[in-house]
Amino acid sequence: MMRYIHCIIIILIVCAVIPAFSAVPPSEWSVMRQADWQTNFYDVAYADQTHACAVGDSGAIAGTADGGKTWSAQSSGVKSALQSVMFIDAKNGWIAGTGGVLLNTINGGAKWTQKKINFKGKITDVCFVNAKTGWTIGNLSDSTGT
User: Residue 67 falls within a domain, yes or no?
Assistant: First the structure.
């Protein structure tokens, strides 16, 4: 009986929330802030409550130190499409991309260093459990990086 009541509560919450999201149709949306650069971004990760990085085409890294209110370009040192970014903590982070690109930071994203690996395909995701142990997943047949 309790499970039945929980299901009803969840359904009622969903029914109440869905109209709130559709209150403003997409045709009435407006751009709040236009970025200074034009690129496709593929992933974003927060190192802590205020610091984050977004990664995208042509080695693009955008960083924020104010919770996303402002973003600035950071140097990746590569031209490959960056596909995935993750932080273990406020200082240690990893970025993966096409052409077997694997970048690491030990200072919260202030500087990224390329790590040499024996893979030239497209790394689509990266996951680390500490500063030295992690996994990547990729596709060898889609080696479109430089």
Answer: yes
